[in-house]
Amino acid sequence: MDYDDIQKLFLEKGFFFPSSEIYSDAPAGFWDYGPLGVNFRNKFIESWRKNIVRRDGMIEIDGSQILSKNVFVASGHLDNFSDPIVRCNECKSVYRADRMISDISKEIISEKLSNEDYDAKIISLNIKCLKCKNSLSPVTRFNMMYDVGIGPKGDASYLRPETCQNIFVDFLRLSKTMRIKLPIGIAQFGKSFRNEISPRQSLLRLREFYQAEIEVFFNPNNVDDLDKFSEVSDTILNIHISEDKIITNSCLELVDRGILPNKFIAYYLGLVQQFYTNNGIELEKTRFRILPDDDRAFYATHSFDFEVLTSTGWLELVACNNRTDYDLSSHQKISGKDLQILDNEEKVLPHVFEISMGVDRSLYSIVEHSYKKDGERFLLSIKPGLSPYDVAIFPLSNKNDLPAFSKKIFNSLKLDFQSFYDSSGSIGRRYRRQDEIGTPICITVDFDSIENNDVTIRYRDSMEQIRVSVSEIHHKLVEYYNK
RNA sequence: GCGGUCAUCGUAUAGUCUGGUCUAAUACGUUAGCUUGCCAAGUUAAUAACUCGGGUUCAAAUCCCGGUGACCGCACCA
After folding, report:
1. Mind spelling out the 3-state secondary structure of A39-79?
2. Gap from A133 CA to B56 C1', in Å?
């Protein structure tokens, strides 16, 4: 199934849809989660908590989305997270200054020059508007952060462009109150905001999006002493070094051969791989791309992008970056607070390895990899723990007491399982509807049920049916979902 | 933001070129009956759309201009 099929499924079944869509001025890049999308996302995040955060003994925070200006002075986003642009004084066309200059001069122009340097080049090359040949404005910056005015004076602050800054600015308090020992992962799930010039492809590129981020604080002098490495040493990763060089090997081998820098990084890459494999993404369709120097974010020394092959090409789901002490030392400097902590009697400013997951994209990828056409049947074969509904309950007919009997079963399950009740239409149609939204189990109440106190359980993928007594249903579901 | 293409019920299409017959059609979906009694059956009825604003015209879904959005390419990125 390709992008368009998934998009249609999302819209028709109430997973996701455009925000403000009844208004014609609805801006691009904002999407609402519908009822099925919310359930699906909650389950995905719960799996992340269970299989990464709790498994590794991490702690989780939930920070505010609006942060003060100084946070972004320190993080570098005010300086680095922007493009140099010029406007035509007459026709108001907008150009990227660095690209315009390099197009005309045929030289390679850095993105990192000052506005004045760009202005000087524009004047010396006598560059005019490409459309109307009129003069250009001085270079200004288009910053990708949304600025927000606080209170009546509109004090400067910004919507966070990445969730992780909360973790860095909260680190001092967390280190003092949470009895932290290195290495420690601090996790956060929440929204980030970027004023993209041209968002596209619905969930794949948003202006307001979910991230599930982990910042692992560690002592840089102590990266190979890691007991829990054995949990991932056999985990296979595809390491993409260049287009013609992909190395597939276990975490242990990759460290031994020097392809991954140390056990510490290999361990966390292994966790990421295991997490996605367990949630239905095939190993063969994944890779960790090692980013070359000129491709990395301004704060990173090592970057590994976890990418998944979809119908739109390779899609980056997780950015794993060694941010070193870039953030903590910078916050230390700007805030004037000492952010060092004690690690075995040694006072250190921890380094940070970041695992930054794009949640919306991950959800898209999981659906694309699980949505199939099985003959005439549309089947969303996602892992049982991720499906929007755990179980659907149907009376075979609306006659006799079947609906009342079914409702009783529904009510007995709905607090422990995401349950769905449906009594209209033919039984086959109701099964197919659940298949398409991925409900792994349907329970059907028939005329014998009332007499024998049992029901039919029908499984999504195999369409198999088994007979189960009413008293066993709850236990059966607990077992199935491994709760 | 630029260039190209495009925009009709929830979805997919018809109608647009050549303005009037469009009071906008069909299928699937959805809702409510009937029927059926374990895999998208049948049947009856209902539901619901011309992206927004302006212009041309006796008359605009249809022609023109602008906004917004979508898709593809450039750039940017989780």
Report:
1. HHHHHHHHHHHHHHHHCCCCEEECCCCEEEHHHHHHHCHHH
2. 33
